[in-house]
Design goal:
252 residues, single chain, two-stranded antiparallel sheet, alpha/beta, 44% helix
Length: 252
């Protein structure tokens, strides 16, 4: 049987021994994710502060400043090294801060599922394996959906629900995973869905461009849905999105 356990995407990556990325930070701290995205996309020399390669750390209620790498105290943030800086911060926040707990968990986990066996899965598949296939009630999801730029009667929205209603349970679970970051259905149904800043129903936002894949923002339970010209095009792009995932591209 499945475990009554639901972990973050980053934790499933730890189980698989995969590196964490900036996208994984979105579910942990969306504001921090947004600020580091800004850092990568803008000229840091204009900020006007000298940021060393260090991180303030709370250790048993005491704040400690730790270097992100050897000699980090005397290495300062520049446009040339900002990608390395962001990667090191993400690694520290999502991995190093819970390294002891991860090690202890993996010891027990690998007694149940050998490492070689677990490594054949991707993190999304591993979640479905550990937590089991949820029962997804599409009518309930539809009844608790908000639209921005579309309405419930827009042709593309009608096609969307026709396609999703025809999905097998696995693809329904993958859709929920794609939108919310987990395949878990809240107790009490989709009206109880929560985002990073409190109650947040599933939302579909209209975006420009009919030749791009749908993207999602899991902190906000949001899909960005381009206005595709017809139902087969929508179905093709929707399947690509839920199968290969493109969450976290851009930000709301």
């Amino acid at each position: 049987g499945a475990l009554e356990a639901f972990f973050t995407r980053a934790f499933y990556k730890h189980i698989l021994g995969e590196p964490v990325s900036l996208d994984d930070l979105q579910a942990y701290d969306p504001d921090l994710h947004k600020s580091y995205l800004w850092l990568l996309e803008n000229d840091v020399s204009e900020i006007g502060i000298e940021q060393p390669f260090t991180l303030a750390w709370d250790e048993f209620g005491e704040e400690k400043v730790v270097p992100l790498k050897d000699g980090g105290e005397s290495i300062f943030l520049t446009n040339e090294n900002k990608a390395e800086y962001v990667a090191l911060v993400v690694e520290a926040k999502l991995s190093k801060s819970i390294a002891t707990q991860i090690k202890a968990f993996l010891r027990g986990f690998h007694e149940v599922i050998p490492k070689q066996l677990a490594s054949i899965f991707r993190e999304k598949e591993l979640e479905l394996l550990i937590s089991g296939m949820p029962e997804i009630d599409v009518d309930d999801l539809r009844a608790n959906t908000e639209y921005h730029g579309y309405s419930a009667s827009s042709p593309i929205i009608k096609w969307f629900w026709e396609i999703v209603s025809g999905f097998e349970q696995e693809n329904k679970a993958k859709l929920v995973q794609f939108v919310t970051g987990t395949s878990r259905v809240p107790l009490g149904g989709f009206s109880q869905l929560v985002g990073m800043s409190g109650p947040q129903r599933f939302q579909i936002h209209r975006v420009e461009g009919s030749d791009r894949v749908l993207t999602s923002h899991t902190c906000y339970n949001q899909i960005d849905l381009p206005e595709y010209p017809d139902k087969p095009t929508l179905e093709r792009f929707l399947m690509i999105a839920i199968t290969y995932g493109s969450e976290g591209f851009g930000f709301a």
